[in-house]
Write a structure and sequence with these properties.
65% helix, elongated
Length: 174
């Protein structure tokens, strides 16, 4: 069975009908929301008749403050329930993601890039930074060890032969 294409006029007509039905549904939903709001206000917020003397006015204020406290408690309870539900949803979403499978890391290609090219790629073409790594290095001078000039071994023995030599030997060791 071959499927026939819908003509543009038929498609336009169906689209306009769907838009009309959607508009009617939106109007009905808005009307229902307004009725629900009015019903709630009638139940929970009775009309206020302002008292004539000060004592009755203070009593009314106390009553209103008690109602405000009660509403704040309900709001806090609802917020905590919503936060708990959101946390549970997030945990379940993570579990579902874990059950789907582990994520594979793609094999990365080795790219030979100089430090200057890397900085230019990171910072953009606006910043021209030249990075000479050797320029910032500390200069270290090599110390040359001076080797003791041994010279003739007989002279050393003669120097250490007498008492003065023994003194020198002990002083140099200590």
């Amino acid at each position: 069975m071959s499927e026939r294409k819908i003509t543009s006029s038929r498609r336009h007509h169906l689209k306009s009908m769907m838009l009309q039905i959607g508009a009617r549904l939106l109007e009905a939903e808005a009307k229902q929301a307004e009725e629900d709001k009015q019903k709630y206000m009638d139940e929970n917020c009775p009309s206020i008749d302002f008292p004539s003397n000060m004592q009755e006015l203070q009593d009314l204020c106390k009553k209103i403050h008690q109602q405000i406290d009660m509403v704040d408690e309900q709001r806090y309870d609802m917020e905590s329930k919503v936060d708990k539900a959101n946390k549970e949803i997030e945990d379940l979403r993570l579990k579902v993601q874990d059950l789907k499978g582990k994520f594979k890391k793609p094999a990365l290609k080795k790219v030979r890039m100089s430090a200057d090219a890397m900085l230019q790629a990171l910072l953009g073409s606006k910043h021209k930074v030249s990075m000479d790594l050797r320029a910032n290095l500390k200069q270290v001078k090599k110390e040359v060890k001076e080797e003791e000039n041994v010279g003739d071994w007989r002279k050393n023995i003669e120097d250490k032969a007498g008492m003065d030599g023994r003194k020198k030997m002990f002083e140099s060791e200590a």
